[in-house]
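dumping this here before i forget
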Amino acid sequence: MQEEGVIKFKCNWIKDVPPDFELIKELDAWRNKLYNAKLIGKNKDGIGYGNISIRYQNNFIITGSSTGKLSTLTAEHYTVVTQYDLDKNTLTAVGPIIASSESLTHAVIYERQKDVNAVIHVHHFALWKKLLEIHPATGKNIEYGTPAIAKEILRLFEASDLAEKKIFAMGGHKEGVVSFGKDLDEAGEKILALL
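structure:
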């Protein structure tokens, strides 16, 4: 069983001021909607799950590590990922908090799909099971938050209709579902429509 909420990459965290709340207002609204739907939250052990991001210039803004368990967030709970390197398993985040453990997943989707401006990672067992059967899914032995999962997502883009479906189950991350879209509405509604 994989440990939940553990950062598996080396994070070069540059502590800095949070993003301007005007930039993340819609992001925060969708995060609240998903939290209220229990798609982002905390498990029985009190460990937070789920994360959400938006493209920002050539970077992306993402919820910070372990923020899934919090009922509401402030700008202090968001950070900007400015670069990553799969081969070195490193990521640079600039802001008041370390980036989510799932940041590499978000990073490769933004890099691969230039028209994507929002990525959402939630947990929902029934949706996860359904997606394992009807949509592309990552391999069952591939851990979340690793270069291996990022490379597996790139493989899915090449070997399946993931670019059109815009949603997939994380086969090796029980309950893990990722959606993406041209904006937060498309990414979020993709999940809600399948529940």
